[in-house]
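Explain this one:

_____
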Amino acid sequence: MASTKRRKTWTIIGIITLIFGVLLLGGGVIAHIPVMRIGLVSLVVMLIGVIIIVVSHKKVKEPAEQPVEPQRKPKAQVAPKAKPARTKGNGAYVVWYLFYLFLFLPLFPIYSITTIIAFSPLAEKLWRRVSGIRPLRLKSEKDRLHPLFHEVYMGAYNANPGFRSIINIYIKEDMSINAFAFGKSTLVLTRGSIELLNDDCLKGLLAHELGHFAHHDTEAVLLMAVSNFFMSLFFGKLTDCVNCHDSGFLVGVVKVLFYYPLKVINFIGELILMRKSRQNEYLADIFALGSGFGKELNGALIELYGVSIEKPQSVKEQFKATHPHITLRIEQLEKIIYFNPPSIT
């Protein structure tokens, strides 16, 4: 059943890519772009769409039916141990990145170089410097946080043997209670979290952020950041072009074929990615729970809820929110911790 849904999803992606290639060719001809240039780009895009469609329709060999064994006396059932929920992957971010890669195919070298730079340790270091994030300097900070992090990391590793990320703790001079992960190795605690939370709550926050590293959420966000950077430049230039020539047949064609469709696609894509971002928060919570720090994280969220006042959000703000409402996260954890521990698989 899952494979059938996966094939349908890739078929839809292939059809969209194929249609986009056709629109790209038609729009390029209308905009008087040299046929050799736009034709080659659109041909590559359409070819990729055809390949995706063909590959998605390949039949998967079904496993041979196993002989029916004679009925045996059922054994005593043992409740399964709680394990962290498996992430469904970050395919939405990859599709988002590839879509804009196709759109900016003539700029492929620049697009690729930007991606490489975004994933480099140098970019991560520069981001920390620009954001005012510093390493642990004081002896009191090291004496408190290093043992806590080691305990949480070993809990995550024991529950997930494939987890081998090299992660360093940093501090942001902000008195709000927060923690976040960035890039491949940056885990940030705010000054407020260190000052206002006890050790158990800090363990919960650290375990949650390790979940983001384990599920590669931080790397997926980097892909989105690269795409959004080029997208903002593209829409800025396109908007200027449309505003400078707000009348005429060609301008109307460009609006119908490119401007409005891409605006709609971009809006829908943002909603999908924000929904995935909220799902990633739930999955990181479950990772912390499976690592043995569910109650600690629940305590941290309760403390955060007690000191923060979230304004009522409009429907649009709710759809575009990167995090679910904190009470929803607390509710999920409490249901698993106190009512149904064995249900996590």
User: Anything to note?
Assistant: The chain has twelve helices and four strands. The beta strands are 133-135, 168-172, 179-182, 186-190. The longest helix spans residues 249-307. The radius of gyration is 24 Å.
